[in-house]
Design a protein that fits this description.
globular; cytoplasm; iron; 385 residues; single chain; alpha/beta; chaperone
Length: 385
Amino acid sequence: MSRANKDAFGVYVHWPFCLSKCPYCDFNSHVRHAAIDEARFASAFAREIATTAARAPGREVSSIFLGGGTPSLMQPATVGAVLDAIGKHWSVASDVEVTLEANPTSVEATRFAGYRAAGVNRVSLGVQALDDASLKALGRMHSAREALDAVGIARRSFERYSFDLIYARPDQTPAMWADELRLAIDEAAEHLSLYQLTIEEGTPFFGLHQAGKLKTPDETVARALYDVTQETCDKLGLPAYEISNHARRGAECRHNLVYWRGEEYAGIGPGAHGRLDIDGIRHATATEKRPEAWLMRVESTGDGVVTDDLLNSEERADEFLLMGLRLAEGIDPERYTALSGRPLDPGRIALLREEGAITVDATGRLRVTSSGFPVLDAVVADLAA
């Protein structure tokens, strides 16, 4: 099936290994003390890509994202093999965005030139904080100086780069965060991902928090930190284009826009999720999370898929609403109607507008306001009801 229209199509590749597990992290990441057989994993990635492309042929790949885990633990040759496999089984746009997540340690930064040569054209660095005490508390293995040095190396290797910071950390004040943000924006050039620290069940931080040994800012301070984030980034030219992502105009992460705009993407690797349209039906796929189990499954059956749910019109519409309203650009309610078979309730829209949580422009586009974003889940639930 070839496509007459050039819809965005992303490929997400998950490298599941880390040197150590951060105490706040609930992602599918694993620590292995023995050497990883990268050649075997590269072959399995290629096999799963081939199988997925056979199910969803004729797509043009507009973005590729190598996430994890810690993809910068991969050798550049492994990254090159994965990108070659994608190019072998799908056509790839001439301006494809290829992002690799990297830890900002000096060891991994030395590989940046190799990644660039392999085809990566954008890196996303997991900096997380720009002061050493916070980095230690977050279980990170780099110093603030090392992080900034890695950003400098990224700047020399890539035209496009981004980094992540976590805020609402223990003992963090709005004034401290504003200073850190200004430093980050000086270094960031075009894109920052700024996440509020959340305490996830099953992580070491969860146990410490429950025991009263880890105190995060209360609701009032957390809201003040969020407000400082918006004000500082707006003022310095990196407004939010999504609830946690800030960019100069035109520098948005195109791969993440695939998710938030409800486009198609393939999920490759252990624990990867995908959304594929097959014979007009949206499939929600997920692969085996455990790396070695995924590997054996791919080698025996061609892919690691353990979940392949068909989304009905209501589920697709709800997902579109949930993801699309995270964006500053908002959503076109007519697309919601086309997906669900029913329009959004005008009464609920009117009430949310009255409360100042959403706006509707002259074209009918619906957006969440700056005062609506902190209560986004409630806004989405109200509209979807």
